[in-house]
Amino acid sequence: MIAFLPIVAHSYTPADYETSIIKAANRLVALQSPTDYGWDWDVTGLTSHSAEPSSTNLYGVTAQGLIDAYELTGNAAYLTAAVNTGNFMKYGNPSEGDFWNGIPPDYTYYWGFAPDYVFLMSLSAVSGDPSYQTYALAAWTWQKANIGRYADGSQSTLWDHYANDWIGTNMYGAAALGTSEWGLAALAMGDTVWAQNMAVVIDANMPNILSASVSNDYKDMGIGWTLKFLVTLNPVTYESDIASLKTALMADQLSDGSWGYGSLPGDPQTTAYVVNGLWTAGAYTLARQGADWLVTNQQTNGGWLETNPDNSQSEYSETNSEPTQATFTVTSYASALYVSPSTVTMAPTDVDTNFTVAVTLSDFSNLMGFDLKLTWDGSLIANGQVDKTPLNALWSAGWAKVFEQSGVGFYELAVSSISAPASNTGASVLFTLTFQALKSSNFQLSTNIQFTVVKLSDNTTPVPNQIVPTTVNYGTYTMSGVTPDIEFNVLEQNKKTGLYAPVTLPGHFEANDHFEVQVYVTDISANSPLQSYDIEISFDHTLASFVDVDAWGVLGNGMVGYTAGSDVVEVSCNNPTGWSGDSGLLFTLTFSISFSATANHIWNYGNANNFQTFQVSVTGATLGFGALGTIGSSGITLPTALTFEVDFIRGDVDCDGAVTAADIGDVAYYYGKPASARPEYDLNHDGVIDIYDIVTIATNYGYGMDP
Description:
The chain is of the alpha+beta class and 707 residues long. The chain is built from 17 helices and 25 strands.
């Protein structure tokens, strides 16, 4: 049986991201100053701007979130707030490096920070007002000419400033962050030469960036922004650096999808910078995991809480904007690349059968070529066939295969149109992969069919642009586990021969009869050998007694736990050698029928039924498979409880399984007395213990004495 489930995206959809961005943007608008149009740094517990002047280093980095929110939603309130910030920032004389309308208490000006330039360039593009761009370019020209470390050719000095003068010494994460910010600002202003020179310095310091300890507070933040800068500048020249940076971020990602700040886990600001960098570099799955974490941890007021070194938590304005920019990054593109169906579930009976998935791209324009590599666990599924004929419909005028390679656990295909590019507002299958299910186990087996290389190219000349999909959703293959069974087999002892033979239950057991319960395990896969078990068998000790373990099975000798008078026998065994197969004996338990000589156990003519029943059942079971884990009762098919009928022998008043002189003597002791003296001896139920009761015994005398 093969079940195909519909496409399942990541935890959050683009609509969820948009909701998050709106909440954050509303928070930024509420906290913006109505006079200097900036923000307080610490906004914990605030509902509006304080009476203090705004922090000058927060303008551009915080207002960028408003631009992103406006671009996503079209809400004019966000653009108005951004414009107010931009107007205040460009109030001074850019040819003198003036930013802001003079800040109290001395009402002086100060040159801009890297995010300020990026913001002004973005605002100019979004608003259509060139004055912001003009101001930024003039201020940048002044800053390079008058502040030595920003001069073109002084990029090493700028690196040293951030590494050793800013917040400490050898702070390579901080240096990577600060210099990459300036590199991105230079690119935003078209100063490619300055950015290239900055990249050379960063590249020379790459060993320091990658070897920085996670305890270096800005390590992953710096790596994330360096990744974005180098990919934006020249992904070919810095391909090796980009791969190393992505690997470092993958290693540092926490299990919840976030990245930490130094020793503090789950940091919104760090995660935002990393998400932005990873998405730019095409590591879409990791980026979406981080973005999902940001949405999950957003506060109801729209902000995010940072954990401080003393483990207290605070809300900061820039940290309300940076996650907004990160989530905007992962929602700002329309196309989606995915494996369809996204989930394939197979049963153990489907081993060696095939299933097919389609690599699909939706809502794209001007697709001229692609290079896609998919990977999976090659021990679970094997790629048997690739169908590239869908490309004939995509590029009907012709296409060429550039590169194709496959092996255990991977497939890569690079193709290019040799005519016109393709566009589709719907979905287009690029190619299909047919897989064969290779094996099953007593545990669920699963692997992602995921993209490890995603390069989609448009037809821009002379150098094409990358088409960045908003979602890259991998597929998931699951082989459900083989459910192991525990089964019973019951044997009754022949009193004459002493041998055991199968019996049909409930049977007719009498006092002093013996029976065996054989306990089997079935359906143990060769890919998950059974190495241990712990099984509890319950019975009714008022009708039966546990004797011993008569035989051990496929895992060898084990241990028995039993306390006299208890209703439970616990049997366990551990053998690392293991066993697998269709059916194997684990152990055999021997029981005897024995019960006390009480009224409810003695045959009486007045009883509606001169028998009782009891059950033997598995009340708990754990099967162990070594390093693979264990399967408890809920994952095992347990046997139906066995029901035994115990018949009471006429005249066997001492309940020893035979009618003897001792039974006659026991009743004769009370001869002539009313039944109230010993009710269980009034066998004919006439109210008196008399000759009729004695004869009732005598007519069955000798029963059970000779097997």
